[in-house]
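Q: Mind making up any chain with structure tokens?
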Amino acid sequence: MLTLDKIYHANFILKDVVRKTDLIFAPSLSGRNQVYLKTENLQVTGSFKVRGAYYKISQLTDEEREKGIIACSAGNHAQGVALAAQKSEIPCLIYMPDGAPISKVEATKSYGAEVCLTGDTYDDAYEAAQLRQEQDGSTFIHPFDDDYVMAGQGTIGLEILEQLKEVDAVVVPVGGGGLISGVAFAIKHLKPECRVIGVQAAGAASMAESVRAGERTCLSCVDTFADGIAVKMPGAHTFEQIRHYVDEIVTVSEDEIAAAILQLMEKQKLVAEGAGAVAVAATMFNKINLDGKKVVCIVSGGNIDVNILNRVITRGMVMSGRRSTVNIALMDKPGQLLGVAEAISTMGGNVIAVHHDSSDPNMAINSCFLRVVMETRDHQQVRDIKDELIRRGFHLVEKEKEPESGCLLK
């Protein structure tokens, strides 16, 4: 069973292994609350996962160590297990989804672990690891549904209460539920009046759906770039812990996550991966019904794949009104582009791309669509630019949106 004694023991075991990460005041992230960031993105291996993995492995018997260890992970648990196995000199095999970020795969290998890529999702990797474990009898290190793993993650709760005694709420990313289970257990036993709020990506809200249904629910697919919390089905143990100790679970969209990553980079000089930014996203976009409170957001990891970072930043800029597009239907004659550019310039916008389209069969032969991409300050400036274009006689149109993607991971 998960106990407070276990969490305190984990804290003792981990004191020379993990960093006691800083709690940073971040006033620019919310106009409604005093926001603090628990910077687990600056943890050893770049995420909180090393806490639970190391504590679990430290408690293995000699017989369990001799069998070697096996694990499954979308990336961060893999690195924690690999580091703990390396320090304990235990052979280690880790199954990861085939689409896991290359940076996480290579980091796991750098700690000496053998990596096997299989399937599309964490759940696929889990099934493969379970099958292999049954065949060779190795010791399985679960990424979340284990009391020792939860106890290791719960040490974050102890640190938060030590660093900010007057904390009113702690906002925690949720995938399988190991992090929030440990944190909520510690917080609610030591300061029961403090609220604990979980956050999931809307495209992978298995825990939120399970809590709503009153029983564990398996999603048919998950659809989010926050790979660290892309879990189809929550753990049995974590589900029960969350039902008892977590006050609320909310969801955030992909665009909101991207905007939070951008805000963390610009305002706090912190790099967060998608899963690591969901708590900040929930606070930024007022998903939490708290005003004037001291709120701690756990930034759970910073291992974002650089290959998607540029796309995430672009989406974040669009979400926050920093980048915008206007589509204009106009007569295709000299001087039109100059007039558009002057209107945008007058209102302080910066044109960064222009696309001229005269091929639409629904237009008159001498007409065209002009698609202008701009850098802007905020949504208000975008509205001002559009108003100025209309005032000058330009006809703005809404181009048809691209079809929304289906389920990315099944």
